[in-house]
Amino acid sequence: MTHAQTETGSRGSRRAPASRRAKPPRKRRRVGRWIALSLVLLVLAAGGAGYWLYSDLNGNIKGVDLDRAIGDDRPEKLPTSGQNLLVLGSDSRSGANASLGTGNVSGARSDTALVIHIPEGRSRAVAVSIPRDTLVTRPECTRKDGSTLPSAKRVMFNSVYSLAGPACVVKTVEQMSGVRMDHFLEIDFAGFKGLVDAIGGVTVTVDQDIHDKSSGLDLTAGTHELDGTQALQFVRTRHGIGDGSDLGRIGLQQQFLIALLSEIKKQDLLGSPTKAYRIADKLTASLTTDSGLASLTRLAEFGRSLNGIDPSTMETIMLPVRYDTQDPNRVVAAEPQAGRLWQALRKDHEIPESAKKSPATGGSASSS
After folding, report:
1. Each residue's pLDDT tens digit, 156-188
2. Are 247 and 238 in contact (CB under 8 A)?
3. CA 212, CA 334: separation in Å to the nearest integer?
């Protein structure tokens, strides 16, 4: 997809007649567990291998020191043992991503953003999707070259990454939510494609034809096995479903993550160290984390801490948004719903149903 290089991003959400809008997905999609699964894969790949295999995979991971990059201008940590993890899917146009049909625009944007909240006790978790078309106030950040990027209001959320990198995205999310991110994890397009190809493809079922010239996806209603390239088209599709906005695409992304998890669980990775290593190699080569997770050992420790989470209790919620009054092609956080959602995460409380309802009709604030 092509993105304009402005602070407010490129083509945005477009409302369509009610008859064309997608029906709200079912509630409580169990998709957050793909993160824990990815961490487990790393352990499987390195556990029975020699030190050189561990060193090779460990060297793949790129780390960012959030405390150094952001400074002290951060929310307080939870007074409990709860954890918050920001997961980014980046659409970089450089390197191995250049041939993946991501458009001709230079730079990168955070194509997918999920705040994963793991309450105290770590027996359940919730994932909050932030629509990329959301207008936000970007805080002052430091660019990679050391220069200062001034604060700005009403900028596209997905433009923050391209202007100042992942640390600024973390800072933006913390400022808008008041929730401190304990960790962040990012995987780029090439890593996503490689992961799907490494496991031999993923099967999905769609209940309507999807034809999206922008992403290249062309599927008829029914069941399809997607390779890495098709999977990438699937999670990037927006014009071929619903109202053509990012809100509808979030439902496809959640559906695919469920299918991806199911496929990996069916495979005997313990009985196939070679495949386990191949998957972990593809994943770690395109993985960037905060410095607190930037090693296989630390990833393994964090993954083990999630072992008590029951997948049946996992829930994914879309940040409640409404269409912007000045630009109907954009959305803004809906209040008081968004405020109640973030407050529940800050206090490590259960999220009330009133915090899951989104006035914007192109998608659903809660899915399952």
Report:
1. 999 999 899 999 999 999 999 999 999 998 888
2. no
3. 29
Using CA atoms, how far apart are residues 253 and 269, in angstroms rounded to an integer? 24
Rounded CA separation 333/287 (Å): 29
Q: How many CB atoms lie within 10 A of CB 125?
A: 25
What is the SS3 assignment for 335?
A: coil
Instruction: Say how far apart CA 196 and CA 6 lie, in whole Å.
Output: 32
- Concatenate the DSSP letters of all residues of 281-293 into one string: HHHHHTEEEETTT
Residues 6+ apart with CB under 8 A from 282: 191, 194, 195, 197, 198
User: In terms of DSSP H, where are the helices of 83-209?
Assistant: 159-164, 166-177, 189-198
CA distance 203 to 231: 9
Helix (H, G, I), strand (E, B) or coil at 258: helix
Q: How far apart are CA 355 and CA 156, in angstroms?
A: 23
**How far apart, in whole angstroms, are the C-alpha atoms of residue 157 and residue 214?**
21
Please tell me the pTM assigned to this model. 0.76
Q: How far is residue 133's CA from residue 135's CA, in Å, rounded to a whole number?
A: 6
CB 76 within 8 A of CB 199: no
Residue 340 contacts residue 333 (beta carbons within 8 Å): no
Q: Would strands 287-290 and 62-64 be described as parallel, antiparallel, or unpaired?
A: parallel
15: left (phi over 0), alpha (psi -120 to 50) or beta: beta
Task: Give all strands (DSSP E) within the chain, no chain letters.
Answer: 62-64, 83-90, 110-118, 126-129, 135-138, 141-142, 148-149, 152-156, 183-188, 202-206, 210-212, 217-219, 222-226, 287-290, 315-318, 321-323, 331-333, 366-367
Lowest-pLDDT choice from 68-82, 100-114, 161-175, 306-320? 100-114
Pairing of strands 222-226, 202-206: antiparallel
CA-nearest of 300, 349, 307, 187 to 253 is 187
- Residue 341's identity, in one-letter code, is L
133-146 pLDDT per residue, tens: 999 999 999 988 88
